[in-house]
Specification:
This protein is of the alpha+beta class. The chain is built from 6 helices and 7 strands; from the N terminus they run H-E-H-E-E-H-E-E-H-H-E-E-H. The strands form 2 sheets. Strands 2-4-5-7-6 form a 5-stranded mixed sheet, with helices on one face. The chain has a two-stranded antiparallel sheet with strand order 1-3. The two termini are 25 Å apart.
Length: 188
């Protein structure tokens, strides 16, 4: 929890120094899915990774991109009691790459979808809370998405599952961001 609060504070205050580099998203996600395999196996879930045969390069801050997907995959496994979690990666044209984290989990209500990226928000609150967590993960994901000039959207239905979609623009102009950071020491 403390690490997440510090990370949130660092990003919000503009003190996080992003390092934008070109890397193969397929390779990073493949490694990550393998790391989550034992966790999904312990729960009896089918963890799948679907991706094109070619490499898919993006230019982004590798650390925060990995944090985005560690959080989303971990949440998908945590909130899925039976069935599957799938990481689906594809090139959608216009130099854009889309990653979907799909699950057959508990899903979310339409009301909660409106506030899910707010810090400390959780749908299940109170003494009988079923799932551990501090409500900071998705707020941090949202900040990291903005930092990488990406987009995130969510579709979810109670007791059916959720799909988190992240779209990276391979033509994102990070030079502009870096020069703004150098002058104002703040990310906008």
């Amino acid at each position: 929890t403390i690490d997440m609060i510090l990370s949130m504070s660092s990003v919000q205050s503009g003190n996080y120094k992003a390092t934008f580099e070109k890397f193969d998203l397929v390779a990073d996600l493949k490694k990550m899915v393998n790391e989550f395999k034992s966790l999904s196996d312990d729960k009896g879930l089918n963890l799948k990774f679907t991706y094109p045969k070619q490499e898919l390069f993006i230019t982004a801050d590798r650390y925060t991109v990995n944090q985005i997907f560690q959080n989303l995959i971990n949440n998908a496994i945590k909130y899925t009691l039976k069935g599957y979690v799938e990481v689906y990666l594809k090139n959608i044209g216009d130099d854009k790459i889309k990653v979907e984290i799909r699950d057959s989990g508990i899903g979310m209500s339409q009301e909660y979808l409106q506030k899910m990226f707010m810090p400390f928000s959780q749908e299940d609150v109170g003494y009988k809370r079923e799932f551990e967590g501090n409500g900071l993960g998705l707020a941090l994901v949202k900040k990291y998405i903005e930092l990488n000039l990406a987009e995130i959207s969510v579709e979810s239905e109670k007791n059916i599952g959720s799909v988190f979609s992240v779209i990276f623009d391979c033509n994102a102009n990070f030079v502009e961001i870096q020069s703004k950071e150098n002058h104002t020491n703040k990310y906008h």
